[in-house]
Amino acid sequence: MKMNKWTVGLTALGVVSLASAVRAEEKMNVVETTLSATTLSGYVDTSAQLNFGPGAAQNMPGYAFNGPQYANGFNLDVVGLTLQKPLTEGEWAAGYKVDLWMGPYANQLNTSSMFSSVNDFCIKQAYVALRVPVGNGINFKMGVFDSILGYESTASGANPNWSRSYGYTMEPTTFTGLLGTYQVCEAVAFSAGVADTYGAQINQRNVDNPSFLAYMGSVALTAPESMGFLAGSALYAGIVNGLNTASPANAGTLPSISSIGGVNQTSYYVGATVNTPLKALKVGAAYDYVGVNAQPLTMQNPGYANAIAGYASYQATEKMSLHGRMEYATHGGPSMPGLPTRVLGMTGTVQYDLWANVLTRLEARFDRDLNGANSFGANAGSAAPVSQNAFILALNVIYKF
């Protein structure tokens, strides 16, 4: 075998034996070979937010990753680190992925295990990836993985807008379980999985009745090249049903009603991203519905929430893009904190990529209570809301590496 020059020198001087040097080099080569396939990436996500109106930091709209702790100031949102060995093309390929979050957003993701409550740190994903050579190959994830539902990602830098939608807020975020994905052909893919619960908490389960699990499934359709300008457009539908035994991860998610039995929740999602004849313009739409029962598998005190949203993205220049979102959300039964029973949200984002590896966005967001009631803000010394509208201006700067 080939040894490095330092090992050769030490062997010549008699400091180490040839046999021990060979064994050490073999072990090192095994480690180096394994680590050479692992990639390290991540990002630093920061923001500055200005909230308008009297007492704007009170009674804020209840969408995810929003709250008085972010209002009217500069923020470190989150630092993300990813270690990954992707699956190769082999029939029995194996790999892994670990996503770590550090910062205030880590507290709101609520993945801390049942035996840990470390502040400002969480495991966002941590799974083993495996391929089984059945048909075109089934890819499995076992461990902690992101939700299969949604138009938007938990990582804000992967979304067209910085702030999260009401639809995202209603969706489950993270599961601990097993997920399988099968690519039938270029245009069709299916996913199906099972998890401990509907909730985000790692290793969360119903200890009184382990038979209550969460089940999920989805289908993705992608337009082939033969469809002209529509090629690459995608239609996605999914469902998740299961027992949520813990408090919700995000501010607006439907809350648990019973801390003992938990609630049975079902989420439905349909979304599409469509290319247009104008190459620089893409449009999208998403619909979310979540239903909740007070007790598992019963219809006592049912509640619901749903949201519909439209998206448009336009690549104005090589460096500048424009993104818009309009959404309408309603709910009934168990209340969603900070969300009127009918609310309209409008968001506009200008992204300009001036620096290499840096995503820079300026965003304006407007939310309105469509019931005509005052739901947002407050006067000094009072907790009562004073405005029908909420308006913010935000700057988001993310460095990706």
Number of helices: 4
CATH homology group of the largest domain: Porin
CATH fold-level label of the largest domain? Porin
% residues in beta strands: over 45%
List the helices and strands in order.
Answer: HHEEEHEEHEEEEEEEEEEE
Helix/strand structural class: mainly beta
How helix-rich are the residues, as a percent range? under 10%
Question: Span between N and C termini?
Answer: 36 Å
CA-atom Rg in angstroms:
24 Å
Mean pLDDT: 85
Question: Explain this structure to me?
Answer:
With 401 residues, the chain is mainly β. The protein folds into two domains: 1-36; 37-400, Porin (Beta Barrel), CATH 2.40.160.10. The chain has helices at residues 5-12, 18-36, 104-109, 166-170; strands spanning 39-52, 73-85, 94-102, 121-132, 138-146, 174-185, 188-195, 214-222, 234-244, 263-275, 281-293, 303-315, 320-332, 342-352, 358-369, 389-400. The chain has a 16-stranded antiparallel β-barrel. The longest helix has 19 residues, at 18-36. It is globular. It starts with a helix and ends with a strand. Residues 247-261 and 295-301 have low confidence and may be disordered.
List the helices and strands and how they pair.
Layout: H1 5-12, H2 18-36, E1 39-52, E2 73-85, E3 94-102, H3 104-109, E4 121-132, E5 138-146, H4 166-170, E6 174-185, E7 188-195, E8 214-222, E9 234-244, E10 263-275, E11 281-293, E12 303-315, E13 320-332, E14 342-352, E15 358-369, E16 389-400
Antiparallel strand pairs: 1-2, 1-16, 2-3, 3-4, 4-5, 5-6, 6-7, 7-8, 8-9, 9-10, 10-11, 11-12, 12-13, 13-14, 14-15, 15-16
Structure described in brief:
The chain is mainly β and 401 residues long. It is built from four helices and 16 strands. The chain is 9% helix and 46% strand.
